[in-house]
Amino acid sequence: MRKIKGLSVLLLCFAFLLTACSGGNNAANNTKANATAEPAATEAVAEATAEPTAAPVDMGGRVIKVAAWWDLKPAGNSASEKERLAKITEVEQKYNCKFEFVNVPFEEFMPKFTATALTGEPFADIVIMEYNSAWPAILKGQLMKVSEYTTAASNINNEANLLVKAPKIANEDYAFAEPGVGGAGIHYNRDLFKKLGLPDLQELYASGQWNWDKFVEVAKQATKDTDNDGKIDTYGFSGWAIDMLRNFSAANGGKLVDEATSTQGLTDPKVIEAAEFINRLYNVENVVKVKGADKVGYDEFNTFKDGDVAMFPAPIWNLGDLTFDFGVVPFPNGPSGSPEVTYADNGKNAFFIPKGVKDPQAVYQAFEDTYDITQTGDFPSQEWLESIYAHEEDVAMMHDHINNTGQILLETAYPEYPTYGYMKDIIVDNQSVTATAEKYKPEAEASIAKLGK
After folding, report:
1. What span is annotated as the signal peptide, if there is one (predicted)?
2. What are phi and psi of 424, to 5 degrees?
3. Can you give the pLDDT at residue 79?
């Protein structure tokens, strides 16, 4: 096990953005080939392989507003941040424009967007938006497709090393993002694994043994009364039950709701299989630590931080304050799943350009150019991952096996979608999963229909 030394911690806001960009385009990892042609052939090779470039546009001193619920302006704390600040100044002079980074509190962000979008004059030219918020806005015609503001000359449509197309929504490209690597997986307490003599999960994964059955086996081995006082001291698993349903369903090939077809997924056999598996963890094997009074409560999201839980689902941004050593593997695939999809990405956010923005091609072109700086590391967001994970194996696991395996899930975009009731009936009231799915099917369909109005 190789520990990473000399870690460089980036700003937390950058962590949020890169986590959100976990489905980044692989093209962003490409590097330009070295010029090795013979002198006589160099000009011909360059002409044959040159990519189109966009000509600068005089924007007449226009202010381009870029908004998020944190400060997107580089702080200048690192060499790359300083270089991007200099590039922004260069682009402002080149395009005769000015960038203004607007920081709007999260709870005010969507109301402000909605109010201004309805007037046809959005409060910002480029906005960071969660996919669950973007989907209703798309249905109302308030956001533009990437094809409406990029051209054949745009880097995003060529090398895509400056900005990349973010994952599709309803099979269409609406958003873009910084190149990045990330995602969600099963994290595990390496200290506790060593103490209890449990098999390393990365070794199980590498040997092809990491599946639901092995997950249960390890969880049972970790759930112990270590001091023989009649009380369980260590547990196999913990987490937010709704988050478990989303992720285990995705890892089994199921989806709670499909925005592309406007269909509910609670009755999908693959989702039902995942719900039955989760119920087994809670009520049959009894390997889940529940700290609060509500088994389905969001507070269980942080129960793993007590240090007595072996395995837990956690986004990367929630790992910064842990006091124990930890590792990561993908969510194990279920009987109906595949390695291409291992988790549900229900917290995705990215850049969007609203309808009503004037000269969107010029706005996008200028913004894209601000990212034309020296690329550091072997791949995008390497430095950030190394600031979170202490072992090279974990960074490699995230880069090679978890990145690009997220399923975009827009379940919370639908008003009163009955996921909570569905899980409560199953793991709290011990109701039949199949009967529960049929019970909540009409509510799920009504929720989908309500969003479409």
Report:
1. 1-27
2. -65, -45
3. 87
Span 124-161, pLDDT tens digits? 999 999 999 999 999 999 999 999 999 999 999 999 99
Spatial distance between the Cα atoms of 302 and 306, rounded to a whole number of angstroms: 8
pLDDT in the model for residue 56: 82
Q: Is 121 exposed, middle or buried (0-12, 13-18, 19+ CB in 10 A)?
A: exposed
In the structure encoding, which two tokens stand for residue 121, read together? 């004059």
The secondary structure of residue 415, as a DSSP letter, is T
Q: What's the mean pLDDT in 18-26? A: 38
Task: Please state, in angstroms and as integers, the Cα–Cα distance from residue 203 to each residue in 209, 210, 221, 328, 370, following that order.
Answer: 9, 9, 17, 11, 42
- Domains of the chain as residue ranges with CATH: 12-32+54-182+347-396 (3.40.190.10), 184-346+408-451 (3.40.190.10)
Structural contact between residues 316 and 406, judged by C-beta atoms closer than 8 angstroms: no
Distances (CA, A) of 142 to 120, 199, 380: 9, 51, 31
Average per-residue pLDDT for the chain: 89
How many Cα atoms are found within 13 Å in the side-chain-facing hemisphere of 317? 14
Find out whether 416 and 443 touch, Cβ atoms under 8 Å. yes
- What does DSSP assign to residue 260? T
How far apart CA 270 and CA 240 sit, in angstroms, is 20
Total residue length of the chain: 453
- Record the pTM: 0.86
Among the listed residues 9, 83, 24, 11, the one whose alpha carbon sits nearest the alpha carbon of residue 351: 24
Helices 79-95 & 360-369 angle (0-180, nearest 10): 140
The residue behind tokens 């694994």 is 193
Question: If you search the block for the tokens 């990145």, which residue do you land on?
Answer: 403
Q: For residues 59 and 407, give the distance between their C-alpha atoms in angstroms, rounded to a whole number.
A: 39
Cα 43 to chain centroid distance, Å, stands at: 42
- Asked whether the predicted pLDDT for residue 350 surpasses 80, the reply is yes
Token pair of 435 as six digits: 């009967």
Q: Which pLDDT band, with edges at 50, 70 and 90, does 23 fall under?
A: very low
From CA 103, how far away is CA 72, in angstroms rounded? 8
pLDDT digits (tens, 9 = 90+) for 295-328: 999 999 999 999 999 999 988 989 988 999 999 9
Query: Which of residues 8 and 292 earns the better pLDDT score?
Result: 292
Residue type, 99: F
- Locate tokens 């839980």: which residue? 309
3-state secondary structure (DSSP) of residue 72:
coil
